[in-house]
Design goal:
Layout lengths: L1 E15 L6 E19 L4 E13 L18 E2 L2 E10 L5 E6 L2 E4 L14 E3 L1 E7 L5 E7 L4
Antiparallel strand pairs: 1-2, 2-3, 3-4, 3-5, 5-6, 5-7, 6-9, 7-8, 9-10
């Protein structure tokens, strides 16, 4: 598998006043990222993949308090590399419901001060549930548990 995905995010990072719930600043008003992904199936039930996000452009709102962000971030750079595994639990190649465990591990390759990474390693347990109709159409749902 080889994929290039172009991703646009509107207001992915905002600073909000806790008391009034009003937006203080749209710290990153717009972001365009290019995801370079690749992977392969190792068996019929296990596959591995990686994702390298490259921020092609991100804008910055200077109304963000200088105490929080003393210097404006650069408008481009690398994000955190992700490694993803997919292990099938319930096989639905003949139709019906399918289930897979899809954990994701992130590596601190992006710069957190530039708003492109977490400056830490991360682990996100995820599951994928899908339904395959007799005609072959697939309806899918991905769920993850993250701590913010």
């Amino acid at each position: 598998m080889a994929v290039v995905l172009l991703d646009y995010a509107h207001r992915p990072l905002r600073l909000i006043d806790r008391d009034t719930e009003q937006t203080i600043a749209n710290t990153i008003p717009d972001m365009v990222a290019l995801h370079l992904m690749g992977g392969m199936g190792l068996t019929r039930w296990l596959s591995l993949a990686f994702d390298l996000p490259v921020v092609a452009y991100q804008s910055f709102d200077r109304t963000t308090p200088i105490a929080d962000v003393p210097t404006a971030p650069s408008s481009y750079g690398l994000g955190d590399i992700r490694l993803v595994a997919k292990a099938r639990i319930v096989n639905n190649t003949a139709g019906g419901f399918g289930l897979a465990f899809v954990p994701q591990v992130t590596f601190a390759t992006g710069d957190g001060a530039q708003f492109r990474g977490a400056n830490a390693y991360g682990f996100e347990p995820r599951v994928a549930l899908d339904y395959r109709t007799p005609g072959g159409a697939i309806i899918a749902l991905n769920l993850s548990l993250i701590h913010i």
